[in-house]
Amino acid sequence: MDPVELQANLRTSLRYLKGVGPERYRILNRLGLETVGDLFYFFPRRHENRSPVKRISELDFGDKECIRGRVMSRGLVRLRNGPSIFRVVLSEADGARGARPLFATWFNQPYLAKVFLPKSAVILYGKAEKKGREIQMIHPEYEIIPEGAGSKTIHFGRLAPIYPLTEDLSQKAIRQLAFGAVGNFSALLKDSLPAPARRRLGLKDTVFAFQNIHFPESEEDYRAAYRRLVFDEFFRLERFIQARRRMWQKEDPLLSHRTGEEEVGKFVESLGFSLTPGQAQAIRDILSDMKGTVPMRRLVQGDVGSGKTVVAAAALVFTAMNGFQGAFMAPTEVLAQQHFMTLSALLEPMGITCGYLAQHSTPEEKRRVLDGLASGEIGLAIGTHALIQESVRFKKLGLAVVDEQHKFGVFQRAALKKKAERPVHFLLLTATPIPRTLALTLYGDLEISVIAERPVGRAAVQTFWVAEEKRREIYHFMETAIGQGRQAYVICPLIEGGSESRAKSVTRVFEEFSRIFPLQKTGLLHGRMKSDDKRKVMKDFKERKTDILISTVVIEVGVDVPNAALMLIENAERFGLAQLHQLRGRIGRGAHESFCFLFSQNTNEETAERLRVFEETPSGFEIAEKDLAMRGAGQILGRKQHGLPELRIGDLAKDLDILEMARREAAHPAEAKKEAPVS
């Protein structure tokens, strides 16, 4: 629901507004603008300060400024086989004598000779420059103003809105339309927030907000308008999340899990290592949820290498001890195969038969797993998107686990839920840490457990951004470490590189490393390889039959080889902070001292800042905060994957204080209803 009630006139088609004919209406449609109400929500990208309007004698050179003057003379020159040049000479608007004139020039706009009439008053906006004794402006924006009128117009003498445009539409045209819409139709708006609530929250009314988001009187008024409209948007978002939460809480519950805690305890004891406090608490949270009368919806959020898989395994043991099956979905075959090997080793001693299902599974393997799931002989299905295919039938699905859940859309997660006759318990895992306030929004319909510690015995990874001239030195370091029994990853951004590409490809680097390290066994891994080939490459690397694995980001998540202690990332500038951290998480998973080396051919300011942050920041939670600040939430959180409404003005990264205020307000709708509505 919109934050304002759009009355009938606000739904009026733009084609009926003055100055909008059929052609312009079609152009506006390209921007998604069809009604007057659409113009209210067509927010400017920024505002340009076009005040004050100066005299010619007051101009500063080099900056864009507004001046007011009067046409002294004008002339049009048409060059043979060249452009036409239209020139206007302006004097001070008040006719002051002795002041130097300004010369304004436009190319290929001969129609201006009919616009700039002698002695007419004009305002120009552009960059003033000195050329010899002349003061010039080339291609300034202009407006002819009535005699005696002030210097503040729709376009000049104010904070002028700059809108996103499409071809054949000018800023002047869209600004004129927006000004007319906001000025003539604002009185039709009804405020969704009662006056007492506005006073308590320190927010402006809706009419003020829309008028000043487009045409603010000051920077302060713009900020107040922005704050109100962002609050409305976030409030709407939070109410949506709460409604979604209430919806799943009303689902007919699966039979509560009543037994199996003792077996989970035995499973934990059999691991051969102690759980971290975060892992232990997450398991307690999960078991408590699954014993309840409402289907579990829990997110386990933990840094790379924090031990989320063990937590999921404990949940799978619990559901199996209560007579239910489990499903574990991963985003890639490499990761799904890794989980199959890990979970089979952990769970089959507990009497839980595991099956693997992926797109490239053989027909015989698929049939065996499908039959086993339908009959109940297989207690856990591990796989990729193949788990949500129509042919997959579970006898009694009780728990669905989704790893790296941000890589799946809401429809894929919903499809997995539908594999059970009754609502199932749902456990989501993510190694993409985000700030708490954002987590409460993006995952507001979930309970959240956080694993903040690294497992005992895991070595920290030392990270170095190294210059190209140090490459031979790094190669020697790698050779020494491999000679001591360690293994290494080399990550490349491309599978194959064209002749003009400066980025390194796995195929080219594989050939180079095979030549540079003739005594070491080198492996190659990328997404275009056949499933069986990828499985064999990873198996060989895990069993230490391969010393160096040249790979693309196909190993980005979940791959667990404790003996791998070295990583070299080529063209590091091509990866985002979060992705670099995920890649780095493939090493440092054992007790060995681990090292990550970054090479980059691009050292622009943005790249340098990102690589410095990565080099200096070992914590995924800190990296997430910094990545959010650098790139904004829209790029890195993938709201479509969460199924949340798109934001038109608010920024989840920089508007956290407004988000928190909206979340608190949305959590107490009863209090809001007590306040008298104001139209």
Structure commentary:
The protein folds into 5 domains: 1-50 and 167-185, no CATH class; 51-157, Beta Barrel (OB fold (Dihydrolipoamide Acetyltransferase, E2P)); 191-250 and 657-679, no CATH class; 261-451, P-loop containing nucleotide triphosphate hydrolases (Rossmann fold); 461-618, P-loop containing nucleotide triphosphate hydrolases (Rossmann fold, 3-Layer(aba) Sandwich), CATH 3.40.50.300. It has 679 residues and is α/β, with parallel strands linked by helices. Strands 12-13-11-14-15-10-16 form a 7-stranded parallel beta sheet, sandwiched between helices. A 6-stranded parallel beta sheet has the order 17-22-21-18-20-19, with helices on both faces. A 5-stranded mixed beta barrel has the order 3-4-5-7-6. The model is unreliable at 1-6 and 670-679 (pLDDT under 50). Strand 14, helix 12 (410-417) and strand 15 form a beta-alpha-beta unit. Helix content is 37%, strand content 19%. The chain is built from 23 helices and 22 strands.
